[in-house]
Amino acid sequence: MAYPFKQIEEKWQAEWEKRKIFCVEPESKKKKYYCLEMFPYPSGKIHMGHVRNYTIADVAARYKMIQGFNVLHPMGFDAFGQPAENAAIKNKSKPDVWTDKCIEWMKQELRRMGFAYDWDREISTCEGDYYRWNQWIFLKMFERGFAYKKASSVNWCPKCETTLANEEVIDDGCWRCYAKVEQKDLEQWFLKITEYKERLLQDLSQLRDWPQRVLSMQTNWIGKSQGVEIYFRLKENGAKIPVFTTRQDTIFGATYIVLAPEHPKVLEMIKGKPQEKEVIKFIKKVAKESKAVRIASDVKKEGIFTGTYAINPVNNEEVPVWVADYVLMEYGTGSIMAVPTHDQRDFLFAREHNLPMRIVIQPSVVSRQLSAKELKEAYEGDGTQVNSGQFDGLPNTQAKTKIAEWMEKEGIGKIKTHWRLRDWLISRQRYWGTSIPIIYCSKCGIVKVPYEDLPVKLPSDAPFTGEGGSPLGKVKEFVEVSCPKCKGSARRETDTMATFFDSSWYFLRFCSPDFDQEPFDKKDVKYWMPVDQYIGGIEHAILHLLYSRFFTKFFKDLKMLDFDEPFTRLLTQGMVLKGGEVMSKSKGNIVDPDSIVKKYGADTLRLFILFAAPPETELEWDDRGIEGSFRYLNRVWRIQENLKEKATLELIKIMHKTIKKVSEDIENFKFNTAIASLMELTNSIYQIGADKEVFSNLVIMLSPITPHFAEELWQKLGNKESVIKADWPKYDSKILVEATVTIVVQVNGKVRSKVEVLAEITEGQLKEKVLADEKLKPWIQGKPIKKFIVVPKKLANLVL
After folding, report:
1. What digits encode the pLDDT tens for the residues 366-396?
2. Rounded to whole angstroms, how far apart are CA atoms 173 and 451?
3. Residue 88: which pLDDT band, with cuts at 50, 70 and 90?
4. DSSP label at 427?
5. How far is CA 518 from CA 73, 124, 133, 557, in A?
């Protein structure tokens, strides 16, 4: 008979909630452990990706609880965002109503999975007692000059009259109405994350327990590069065009320069020229392209000659000035020097537009001398300088330094450090987000909302049509306010904050979710932070994790906390696949967690998710694997019916090996191999038979993985307290050292060999070992053995 998982799981979920067994407070005498998953957007239903993420974290949290740690394991909801607003438009409802329903659905499903959350600490970012502190943080940044407003180019849908995130631009069109997306300049709010660029880069060295892939992604995103800003000048008026490069060794091969269409000098330089009309037409065309498309490596690059020439300062050569879509104003100086022989992108562009090429670095291998006419691709490797004036003959690695120093000395360039990181644009022309706490007054200018007036709440009567820009701008009572300074007529900011703002500090709020003096209680944060284990998808490797690190450093500068990094250890779990593809509605390959829980139970699903693959790798869904996990739990369930008085020494040794292996594997998030060891112990129990001690240890080791199942068995073993309160089993290293003895082997009384065997070997096992000994075979030669005489731990005599 299968174990009654439905009754057991409902029983223990109710019991945990009743006892508030996972609710914690700071305890100075106990070592803390803060385990956190990236909190979800409340979409209404959890999917297998959620189940995997949260199960991994739950094992870590429960394991540490049993080890005696004071474990903080909270859950909340990243509840603001465009999907709720879109649902409100579609269903003619309100975003808060839709979001609240989704949160309730998700909480029910999370509880059904048996996750050990401290629900007393639940937070939802769309609640006023949370976003009040978003606004407080914004004002602190504004006071220090870290929040500012400037014009910026954004993705704009002319039909919906709203901005779009890059992810909402599909095939260059609006995801909702398919209208062609344009680039539009709007006044936007930014946060000065670049103020922390050096610290954000340097402190990556502290993150020894982060995946190297994530560290590399952040390093590249911050993008510190040493190079030279070279001063090209326009031939006709001497106007300076700064160009930044890290390949100053190739400057003598620059045969044209390229400006971004948005570059402020472009319109000035084409004025009155024959090319003016065509260049303006090209600029307007590019303005309708998304930036993602412009810089995509698989998209053909387009450009146009401006009719203008610039002077290359190192050799006074005239080079044509082009405008091209692949150069963006926000990267570098908005202009690049093009060296087609030594840069593949420049090579493809030059070949397309029949622009000149010149080799300035020859490979060191003599047999591979390059010719510009015969090049099939750019040569981007190292070599020797040629066609480079006084630097000819130098290895290009040395020439880099010498050319940079020479240009700086001659005043034609400056050694500089450039960064890829740009300030963070947080403005959104949406409703369902944190209102930016700013008021505009014709007399006083930009005025901050007073702290005592926070939170600035969203109006409940905003119209949702999906057209005509932000709904906030249409609510007169919201927009029209008095200036806090002069009391005259003023208007409120109608932009809301990007939802990444909300998630950049939520981990701190969990430490003291009810604190009403500041965003968090410094005393509680000092006890709980930093997060010991953070778990989430690789898709958040840059934005969310970088912004969270930025906020933490800002809070440290405010003296609100005393550490540099928010997350000590990071795990990025792999995707869940079916049929080799990520589960999705469009592919029709979704497996609903709820259906699996109803058929097999939450513990079976948890066991399968953990056993099927290591956490960091992709997991392929397998129905047979689910069935196998269910069968295994039923095998363990039946053991309780046949317990012995005392386990054999052989099984005790196996148990201690298992304790050591499982402890080490769970500590290192190798859950699949930990489960394999538990299955091996279970097989040994079936072969040899277990007593209460061995079975109790098996149940404790299973409890982080299959908690309801383990709780029930623990109770059946006569325990009154939860298995969470048990002591994690310890292994005895002495038992693990298997003693061996040397047995002298005689044939008819004469010593013929010696064999090394385990001290606890049986007579039958010893006979088998002796007969397999190669040295004895010539003496036995297939003769029948009349007697096998054994002197324990000393001698074996074969009588033939």
Report:
1. 667 899 999 999 999 999 999 999 999 999 9
2. 41
3. confident
4. E
5. 22, 17, 7, 15
Question: What is the distance between the alpha carbons of residues 136 and 190, in angstroms, rounded to a whole number?
Answer: 16
Q: Determine the 3-state secondary structure of 157 from DSSP.
A: strand
- How far is Cα 454 from Cα 589, in angstroms, rounded to an integer? 46
Cα–Cα distance measured from residue 227 to residue 418, given in angstroms and rounded to the nearest whole number: 8
H or E element that contains 19 = helix 5-19
Determine the Cα–Cα distance for residues 400 and 417; give it in Å rounded to an integer: 15
Euclidean distance between CA atoms 308 and 241, whole angstroms: 12
Tokens for 585?
């509605």
Tell the residue number behind the tokens 């999906």, with chain if given.
466
CA distances from 92 to 87, 95, 465, 468 (A): 8, 10, 9, 16
Report the length, in residues, of the chain: 800
Compute the distance between CA of residue 763 and CA of residue 797 in angstroms, rounded to an integer.
12
Determine the Cα–Cα distance for residues 349 and 337; give it in Å rounded to an integer.
13
Q: Which pair of structure tokens corresponds to residue 655?
A: 């148990």
DSSP state at residue 395? B
pLDDT of 167 higher than 70: no
For residue 414, the cross-strand partners are 229
CA dist 457 and 459 (Å) reads 6
CA proximity to 332, closest of 250, 409, 422 = 422
Report if pTM > 0.85. yes
β-bridge mates for residue 742, sequence order:
756
Helix (H) or strand (E) holding 257, with range, is: strand 256-259
Q: How far apart are CA 174 and CA 82, in angstroms?
A: 14
Does residue 218 sit in helix, strand or coil?
Answer: helix
- As a whole number of angstroms, the distance between CA 495 and CA 102 comes to 25
Pairing mode of beta strands 531-537, 32-37:
parallel
Alpha-carbon radius of gyration of the chain:
35
The answer to whether the beta carbons of residues 695 and 654 sit under 8 Å apart is: no
pLDDT of the residue at 366: 64
Query: Which tokens belong to 634?
Result: 């039923």
Are 72 and 33 within 8 A, CB to CB?
yes
